[in-house]
């Protein structure tokens, strides 16, 4: 259950979409909502004071139009990434919601506020893309393996979804597993893989409080990461994709780290990143 949601807002249209999603989730969970806007710190004091007054007026009117008058407005000055990370640490928010940057030029992603925050953030990060952000998610997907971060992504995805939603757990078989499938006992191996993943889902979901969405398992036997996951996501067309950002071994960490970076650069839908 979410208790405190922090949304970073830079006065862009993308930030407004993220704010709408944050308001929807706050209402769904009865959570406290805070909006953080960072002012530039290299301007003269008089200009900074004028910008602060203008920001207070803008957000006061904007939040009132959205029916979110009880939202807490936080105005800080400094470097956006640093201020966001400090506020997450100080407020102990359960979720950071942020809009997409450089959506028309993904090659410019490295060095953005989003990239810097994603690399150092300890809390779950929700990158919002979808236009219909005022309605609860109805269909989501999570990349699932046996790593702790994938299980964390599964639990966090469930927490964002209403009971009538559907969550598909996508497992892309690793190279060694796919080679074993080509052996004479491939049917037995696949059955064992499904059984182990099913037990993992059962164990993880049993520990969740309250009502949870419908969860289905799909084992992807064709191809390898990231292409196989790309194709599965394109086929499923979820509104939300949840990813863990690190793996079980050095090789998996590098792969899943690059996978998270790949989807942050060009997300196919809203993206939930969990460490």
Automatic annotation (TrEMBL):
CDD domains in UniProt: USP-like (cd00293)
Protein's name according to its UniProt entry: Universal stress protein
Pfam families: Usp
InterPro entries: Rossmann-like_a/b/a_fold (IPR014729), Universal_stress_UspA (IPR006015), UspA (IPR006016)
Similarity remark: Belongs to the universal stress protein A family.
UspA domain segment(s): 1-128, 137-275
TM region(s), chain numbering: none
Stretches of the chain forming a coiled coil according to its record: none
């Amino acid at each position: 259950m979410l208790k405190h949601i922090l949304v970073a807002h830079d006065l862009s249209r993308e930030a407004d979409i993220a704010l709408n999603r944050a308001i929807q989730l706050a209402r769904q969970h009865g959570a406290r909502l805070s909006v953080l806007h960072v002012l530039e710190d290299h301007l003269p004091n008089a200009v900074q004071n004028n910008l602060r007054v203008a920001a207070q007026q803008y957000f006061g009117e904007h939040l009132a139009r959205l029916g979110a008058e009880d939202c807490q407005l936080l105005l800080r000055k400094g470097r956006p990434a640093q201020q966001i990370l400090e506020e997450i640490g100080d407020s102990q928010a359960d979720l950071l919601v942020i809009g997409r940057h450089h959506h028309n030029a993904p090659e410019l992603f490295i060095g953005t506020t989003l990239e810097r925050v994603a690399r150092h953030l300890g809390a779950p990060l929700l990158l919002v893309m979808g236009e219909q952000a005022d309605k609860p998610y109805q269909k989501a997907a999570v990349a699932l393996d046996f790593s702790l971060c994938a299980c964390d992504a599964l639990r966090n995805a469930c927490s964002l979804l209403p009971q009538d939603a559907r969550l598909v757990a996508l497992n892309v078989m690793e190279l060694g597993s796919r080679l074993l499938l080509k052996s004479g006992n491939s049917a037995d191996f696949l059955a064992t893989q499904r059984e182990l993943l099913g037990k993992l889902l059962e164990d993880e979901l049993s520990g969740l409080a309250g009502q949870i969405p419908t969860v289905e398992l799909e084992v992807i036997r064709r191809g390898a990461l990231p292409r196989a996951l790309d194709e599965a996501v394109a086929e499923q067309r979820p509104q939300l994709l949840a990813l863990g950002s690190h793996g079980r071994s050095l090789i998996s960490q590098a792969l899943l780290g690059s996978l998270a970076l790949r989807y942050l650069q060009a997300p196919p839908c809203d993206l939930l990143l969990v460490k």
